[in-house]
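User: Can you recover a sequence for this backbone? Please restate the input before giving your answer.

Assistant: Of course. Working from this structure:
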């Protein structure tokens, strides 16, 4: 059956543009500024100019931040119900004007009207409804948290309005005020949204919208008045933002690129999988960060599946995005078209087979046909780079383990699809894929109740769901932290006394602890440790880069710890506590000698209690089962981060060590720990405790030495998944954040402030466990 033309009228959208003289200023403090330096917004489908927008300046960003800062106390004081009413009004108005928004989005972005009308706009309204509910429940459900403050938000051009709702709705619900920058190419629906904000009764200054190019984003990122940044865009820009914000104390969430696998097993419904693949890679012209751009199909059905896929590609329609019968619209800009064409040409040059259906390409605008590439190696540019266009790269596999290996053969980790009629196989494979979202027998499903976000170089943080709300909240206990670490003063160090008592009365240097064994440091150097009175106590090994490398290797070999049951992990923590208690007096004496503490017994007892505390949490930090508006469920799993590098505090050397290591291993992580640089012996004395507590080799690895040098190595090591630093060094914490940008690993740093390690409010609870875990949402449809 052939579809006839079904064009959508642009009359109302064009009238709205004319109403504004096709020229827009900035939206700050509920007022429109006079237009300044202008740049054009064009229709990608025909290159026709739609309107002129204002290029914001640094002073404009200053005004927007000032307006947001002035409005924030009042917006928060309005209370959850007051904010919920405004957000409900926004949702209702978005529905009322849904067709206008949809047409304007299609004109500005180039995506098909079917997508903006049937996918984007319903989800936009859903986000405001859903988060209005969180605003209403905030005082009850997030009683121990407060709003972050002023939030800077920067979004890309592929889902302009939907990204706006993903960012603004949770920020508003939590009581924050916003400085929002839409993408330079696609700002028009943000301008219309600004009008809707006024109609909904939004107080002045709560939402401020500044338009322009990357200079505006840079001004927001670097502005000292911004408390939290939320960015969606390329991994390259995400790295720059991580470096720019290092040491600033700004909260940061990054939703970045992807190279998502689409795995088809031989027992899958192949026709359904083909349709899912069409929705996965050719939806929005493939300009989707989670697009299923890597097809992995089981070898036994590869030829059959690719034949079905080529036949389906031949039926895809490409043309005017405003025509309801079109499947594929225009690319956002000629620059994007040129980049995609260059990558496809590189695949041809490497000997790959490139299949493109015969379709008429419009003379004007930015277009690219649906494309299938076969025969690429796993290292080919098209197999590794995010193409961000309607290009699919297909490979085969033989066994499920090989499928997982190929799926994880990327620096990204945003999303994945698994197609099989064997639910046992699907639920076995899904947790093994390093991605924040896994769709089973479906693709590109989104809902406000279900978190979305990536692993590895796809960024960190989540959008949507309860976990998305936490991105815009700060634990109130953080406000009570000491201004600086409280460390006991030490006397001047004294030289080691001569050995006495016979030939065997010599000092013994504490070794490193790697892979469950004591090991001499690679450099064969040691450092002296002195007590509170300056007297020499012992020496410890001086760890270096190679020691860290060995420890990371041992930690990865202990990957079975992540698969151990939570009950088993809890038992091991209880055993550690039991064995520590048996040697409590010895540990108290060591702490007293090192630090001069008058309450060393208290620290040992608190450490035992902290081990019990996280043993209790180990089998209780469960995920959630969501029921989104689809026929199925979404299971949000709390997964371990992987291998975490930890730099411990100098104050409370035993309790600080336990308070950081225990939550990490309770949730299945493995750790490489740098104990207190000043007082490391509390950690080195734990070796025998670990050995007698059934802790598997490699789960905890301890490297003594310089906190700065070792933290630097941890932050730059590509096989470390996260780094925590809590030794009170402002410069050192900033360096960890800056260096982590290389692989975009997660960080948790204390900055120059101290922490009350005896307080579970500051050193325990879900806030700490959230740093030790990452949420994976697995979508499981059922029935028809």
């Amino acid at each position: 059956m052939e579809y006839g033309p079904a064009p959508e009228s642009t009359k109302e959208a064009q009238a709205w543009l004319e109403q504004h003289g096709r020229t827009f200023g900035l939206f700050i403090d509920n007022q429109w500024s006079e237009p300044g330096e202008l740049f054009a917004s064009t229709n990608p489908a025909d290159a026709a100019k739609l309107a002129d927008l204002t290029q914001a300046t640094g002073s404009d960003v200053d005004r927007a931040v000032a307006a947001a800062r002035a409005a924030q106390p009042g917006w928060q004081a309005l209370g959850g119900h007051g904010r919920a009413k405004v957000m409900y009004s926004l949702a209702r108005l978005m529905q009322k004007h849904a067709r206008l928004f949809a047409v304007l989005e299609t004109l500005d972005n180039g995506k098909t009207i079917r997508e903006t009308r049937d996918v984007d706009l319903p989800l936009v309204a859903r986000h405001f409804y859903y988060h209005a509910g969180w605003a209403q429940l905030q005082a009850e459900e997030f009683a121990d948290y407060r709003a972050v403050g002023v939030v800077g938000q920067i979004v890309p051009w592929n889902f302009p309005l939907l990204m706006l709702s993903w960012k603004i709705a949770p920020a508003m619900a939590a009581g924050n005020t916003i400085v929002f920058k839409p993408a330079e190419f696609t700002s028009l629906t943000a301008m219309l949204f600004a009008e809707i904000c006024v109609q909904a009764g939004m107080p002045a200054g709560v939402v401020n919208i500044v338009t322009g190019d990357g200079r505006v984003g840079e001004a927001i990122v670097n502005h000292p008045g911004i408390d939290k940044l939320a960015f969606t865009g390329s991994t390259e820009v995400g790295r720059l933002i991580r470096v720019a914000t290092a040491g600033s104390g700004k909260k940061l969430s990054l939703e970045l690129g992807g190279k998502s696998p689409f795995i088809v097993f031989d027992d899958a419904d192949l026709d359904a999988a083909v349709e899912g693949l069409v929705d996965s890679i050719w939806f929005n012209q493939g300009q989707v960060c989670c697009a299923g751009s890597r097809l992995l199909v089981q070898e036994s059905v590869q030829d059959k599946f690719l034949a079905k896929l080529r036949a389906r590609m031949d039926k895809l329609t490409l043309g005017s995005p405003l025509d309801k019968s079109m499947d594929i619209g225009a690319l956002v800009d000629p620059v994007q078209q040129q980049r995609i064409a260059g990558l496809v040409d590189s695949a041809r040059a490497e000997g790959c087979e490139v299949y493109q259906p015969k379709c008429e390409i419009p003379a004007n605008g930015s277009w690219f046909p649906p494309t299938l590439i076969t025969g690429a190696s796993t290292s080919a540019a098209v197999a590794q780079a995010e193409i961000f266009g309607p290009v699919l790269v297909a490979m085969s596999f033989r066994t499920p383990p090989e499928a997982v290996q190929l799926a994880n053969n990327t620096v990204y980790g945003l999303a994945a699809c698994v197609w099989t009629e064997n639910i046992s196989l699907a639920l076995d494979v899904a947790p093994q894929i390093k991605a924040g979202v896994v769709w089973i027998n479906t693709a590109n499903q989104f809902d406000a109740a279900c978190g979305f976000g990536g692993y590895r170089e796809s960024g960190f943080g989540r959008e949507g769901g309860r976990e998305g709300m936490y991105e815009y909240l700060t634990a109130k206990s953080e406000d009570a932290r000491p201004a600086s670490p409280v460390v006991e003063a030490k006397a001047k160090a004294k030289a080691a006394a001569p050995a006495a008592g016979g030939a065997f009365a010599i000092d013994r240097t504490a070794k490193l602890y790697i892979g469950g064994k004591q090991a001499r440091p690679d450099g064969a150097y040691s450092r002296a440790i002195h007590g509170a009175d300056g007297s020499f106590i012992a020496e410890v090994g001086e760890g270096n880069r190679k020691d860290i490398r060995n420890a990371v290797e041992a930690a990865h070999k202990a990957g079975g710890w992540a698969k151990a049951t939570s009950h088993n992990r809890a038992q091991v923590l209880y055993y550690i506590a039991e064995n520590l208690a048996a040697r409590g007096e010895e540990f108290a004496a060591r702490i007293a000698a090192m630090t001069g503490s008058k309450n060393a017994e208290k620290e040992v007892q608190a450490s035992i209690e902290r081990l019990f505390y996280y043993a209790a949490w180990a089998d209780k930090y469960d995920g959630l089962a969501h029921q989104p508006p689809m026929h199925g469920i979404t299971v949000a799993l709390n997964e371990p981060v992987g291998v975490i590098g930890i730099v411990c505090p100098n104050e409370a050397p035993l309790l600080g060590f336990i308070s950081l290591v225990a939550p990490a291993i309770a949730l299945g992580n493995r750790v490489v720990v740098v104990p207190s640089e000043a007082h490391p012996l509390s950690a080195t004395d734990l070796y025998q405790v670990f050995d007698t507590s059934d802790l598997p080799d490699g789960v905890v690895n301890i490297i003594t030495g310089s906190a700065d040098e070792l933290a630097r190595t941890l932050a730059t090591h590509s096989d470390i998944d996260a780094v925590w630093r809590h030794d009170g060094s402002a410069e050192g914490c900033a360096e960890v954040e800056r260096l982590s940008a290389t692989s975009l690993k997660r960080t948790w740093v204390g900055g120059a402030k101290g922490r009350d390690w005896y307080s579970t409010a500051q050193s325990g609870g879900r806030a700490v466990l959230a740093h030790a875990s990452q949420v994976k949402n697995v979508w499981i449809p059922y029935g028809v």
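That completes the design. The longest strand covers residues 632-640.
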